[in-house]
């Protein structure tokens, strides 16, 4: 069945789904693995929360505006970041870190943990912000499969994700073989951006959904 997807105002974590006259909230932070591998949003059912109060829906909605094409600018920004890293490499030699595989790996692990903690903290902030308007735990729940908006959206998202995944792996490699403060900073930044683009799997527009069979239950 058809579904209109809208964003929640100033909240990247949630989506509003309008399906056959009913409104649901989709939590893009419902699964840790889906945040890391956002393709799972299309491959497995996702929990949704039905909102029956139209006043709540209006408070949640983002103002209607045309979709901006951020994908190309994101890749351009990443390219600029790599260029800046190259320019700063001579300066980074003054901040060189101890060069042993074990120490470099431990530092990389701490950088990765920092990026994840920052990401989780941001998602928890979005959750608290939404709960000031509506408590999802009090709503009726269901599960549904949701598809990419179009073939174009599917391939664009896959390309962007693989690009930033490759960039993240490259910086992780550099953090081990040629570590310095600048490289570690960019490693954390690229990894954080890789995580933050996961909601792009379900973008604003019209798509198709299929409910998982079973009676709706209240949490």
Automatic annotation (TrEMBL):
Q: Which Pfam families match?
A: DUF443
Q: Provide the coiled-coil residue spans.
A: none
Query: Which keywords describe this protein according to UniProt?
Result: Membrane, Transmembrane, Transmembrane helix
Transmembrane portions of the chain: 75-96, 102-123, 157-176, 182-206
UniProt keyword Transmembrane present: yes
Which NCBIfam families does this one have? Answer: Gpos_tandem_5TM
Q: What is this protein called?
A: DUF443 family protein
Q: Which organism is it from?
A: Lentibacillus kapialis
